[in-house]
User: Fold these one by one.
Assistant:
Number 1:
Amino acid sequence: MQVGAVAFDFNGTLSDDEPVLARVYEELFAELGHPLTAAEYYEHLAGHTDEEMFKRWLGHSSPELINERVRRYNELVVDGSTVDEDVRAAVRWAAARMPVALVSAALRDEIEPVLRSSGLRDLFSVVLSQDDVTRGKPDPQPYLLAAERLEIDPPELLVFEDTDVGVASAKAAGARVAGLTRTLGAARMSQADTLVERIDAATVERLLCS
């Protein structure tokens, strides 16, 4: 089926920030008496909602804990430096040809500052955050809702994701998925329809034309 819109995950995909998130969680969990290594973050937590990550590691979650995590994250990324120029060019290329969406397990309070500072906010027709859904990834609800708001059928959506959790969400919704391998490696992303090592305009063009 012809692609009618492109959707990007946020953490680790549009924004190359998974190392930042790992660092924030490492520091926060250590302070809370439940140390976490970067390897454990990538193995058990990457791609999930904050609530799920806190519950998995601490056994509980709270708005206060999530707000503190977001505050620490924002201090490190608010300048937009985690969105590299190749990704910005890819978004601009896609947005000039079709609707572009952002579909994330992150919260709007951390997404919006990065989109604005990277100059990309106005290019997105739809921005879906964890605030907009009742069931986060790997549930298909985020991508089903994105397709609904884009007014297309889910199989018309080309999705870029960097975690197996995100791939599962998009595939369950019926979307076509390009798995970015830089976060978890090719093996963990094997359920994607295709694998890519980077996101740039040439990659988006190739996938849209294939």
Number 2:
Amino acid sequence: MLELTNVYLFIAASFLLCLAPGPDNIYVLTQGMTKSKKAALITTFGLCSGLIIHTTAAAFGISVIFKTSEVAFNIVKYAGALYLLYIAFQAFRYRNQALDLSVQNSSSELKKLFVKGFFMNVLNPKVSIFFLAFLPQFVSPENANVPLQMVSLGAIFMILTIIIFSSIGIAGNMLSAKLLEKPSIVKYMNILTSFVLGALAVKLALSSR
């Protein structure tokens, strides 16, 4: 069982981490601003589903591979960077496409956003290493079943992430709703999305363990 003191500290630390600007919440923000609230929510669920993989990996020690093997770390890192560049290219390629919420909110488009979010998160080995370093700080070894404690903490982190990221995406959509009525604004926001994702890809590619 988790100690309540550790849980409270973990929630406070996780809340601040989720609010801090990073690749994931910036991406959710741009989805809310350039597409719709539903798009931001689905993207959030996609990103958070990736956290299940990272939590499981950290709980059972798989993340150690990324921490100790430079080859494994680089393979996943470059795969993630290439995927981000691909999404950035798609955003730039269709920068002049008019905003059509009936298309953006279709089941096929929302499914694509979910998959994009999932792979963006999973293909970032630094998240696995972060979880491996972060979760154990709030675990009580004397209470036994350490993997279960880590999985529980990961679930708490995921719930907080869903709440905060969803709020960020919805806020972004509300703030930009009137601006998006102008086609030129949509174009520039797609270019901005492309630039942000491209910058994140470069940052990931240049990152080290």
Number 3:
Amino acid sequence: MTDLIIEKMGRAGHVTLNRPRALNALTHQMCLDLELAMIDWAADDEVGLLLIDAMGEKAFCAGGDIVGIYNEGKSGQVDNALKFWRDEYRLNHAISTYVKPYVAIMDGIVMGGGVGISAHGSHRVVTERTMFAMPECAIGLIPDVGGTYLLGQMPGVCGEYAGLTGARLTGADCIYAGIADYLVPSDKLDDLKTALLDTGDVAVLQEFAIVPDGSVLEENRASIDAIFALGRIDEILLSLQGDPTDFAQTALKGLSRGAPLSLKTTLAAIRAAREDGSLLGALRNEYRIVSTCLQDGELIEGIRAMVIDKDRSPKWKYPTLESVPQDMIDRLYQPAQGGDFAVE
């Protein structure tokens, strides 16, 4: 059974993630295969658009294959993980600049690597089952695959809130945050896909989209902007601790799960991405950080605690905000060892 089903159907190129038991987690080979399909269809006049979806109702894609990265890191095969990240980031950038409409059906769980192959597309569809999150701080990483760019583009400082706490966003939240374009009821997805494949015309999306309702981000925007615009993580923590509302206390729990190193680096990276304003700049900065995570950072311990042993009790190298060396944060502004990420 192939992990990625690739076929030309009607007037469209159709890609389906096919690892439902693994929540359609993205492997290195799946990235490479998707990229090749995109190249082929870009030159095919019979293909009007690319449609990407996934098998199963639970998840579009719950992230990258972090168990594989863990095993490679533990065995000292850092180069393999770095190659994966470079190829994955190249794919993320290619999606953002694709010459044809790239329609992503973001139904179910969308996290990590799943964000990278959907939210950079030109036409992004969510449903009432969408659960979008970037919880990388909890595994000792930062929101990557261009995540810091997406977070930096959200209204106000909603990106800081979502990236630091790993908050779960609904389909309505995604529309409000600007990381999705259309909300379509899940029971209409089959009809929508048929229409897209038959016509190769993204105009049909308007026929199925409904008006979103009830964004938690929008409802709590004032609190988010007041708290997450503060300059440092410790100031954000203190503000949350002093706010008795359910929203603030839930945010506090989410933020407290993050590795202190990841929290400080994520805050800096989101703000740097907002100031720079380009996906390519964000990917470069993200690669600078993730390229150090396997050996010098917290990633191995984070994956162990959250995914391998599942004890949810990570023993961070830097257990407090005060213990995080400034030079670890400064790596965001220094070329990666072995060379920065760049689109060739």
Number 4:
Amino acid sequence: MGHRRVTTTLFGLVAVVLSAGVASAVAVEPAPRSAPPRSSATSAAPPPLSGSDIAPWAAGGPSSTTTTTTTTTTEAVPSGPDVSAYRGLGAWVDAFDYAPAYHRPREGPQLVPHDIDAMAARGVRTVFLQAARLDHRSPGGIVDPALTGRLLKRAHERGMRVVGWYLPKFADLEADLSNLRLVRDFDVEGHRFDGIAVDIEYRRDVPDHAERNRRLIELSRRLRAETGGRALGAIVYPPVLLDEIRPNFWPDFPWRELAKSYDVWLPMAYWTEIAAESSYGDGYRYTQAGNRGLIASLGDPSAVVHSVGGVADTSTVDDFEGFVRAVDETGAVGFSMYDYRTTSPAGWQVLAPSAPEPA
């Protein structure tokens, strides 16, 4: 999730003094309330995405053909890891947002534990917190353990869930796996992370894509074996980026091999990053294409998807609205913008009312 851009635009206003409720953020389901309709397009939305789509990332509007069927079903008993932490409105927080060792003064004040209260007031249901890093500013792996613990505990006290995420660099798999174990085992007075997510985007240290793929698969396989029933999330580039927009960026990405290791998929639909080089440079088209392409690449129509849009401070209100509409239309279980500090009040007016009630 390493993209950070702080610009001064009407929509990219960055204000992180959250105690008054003026926040920036990503998304997760809200606290129980009576939610208004998600969007005017929701009632006409096509069925959830399917891996059998002929054009899996066709970015056109909603289908004009609607089929209505009546069936009698018995609610299935959930099996496998609990993925509820990935449902609804979420908020992304990276180390630069909250840890003093990573502070960039030009980006304004950092988040502190009481800012969690503002997230809860906005309807955020899950905080995606960068819990570990592989660099000298986090010598023990966990980013500022004391502060991480306070944020985790505060979120749980406000009825929110917390997913700890980590960016592996693949040069040293043992170091990467060690940091992921730290996230898995992190415990403050009985408070632990509700999920673990792996940010799969770093390419610099292992430029050969075949070797990088091998290491990624190995890391994922070992992590899966060591986390048991804990829900694992894969933060990934959308397939449309890798296959169509930038085919040489990460060739032969191992979707089917990774499907064995992860429970939830979080495609980074950063339309602001590809607007100049493709026709997908808006919130609706890129989110829809990303989600449909992901399902097709995995070959699993039942795959659990949490959409991540962005980058927030260079997105428009139209982008936010299109993003929410695409989330509805493709059946994603959750949605969020990258990141919390850079989502403007205008963005929140789109995101928060659209958050569904907790399942």
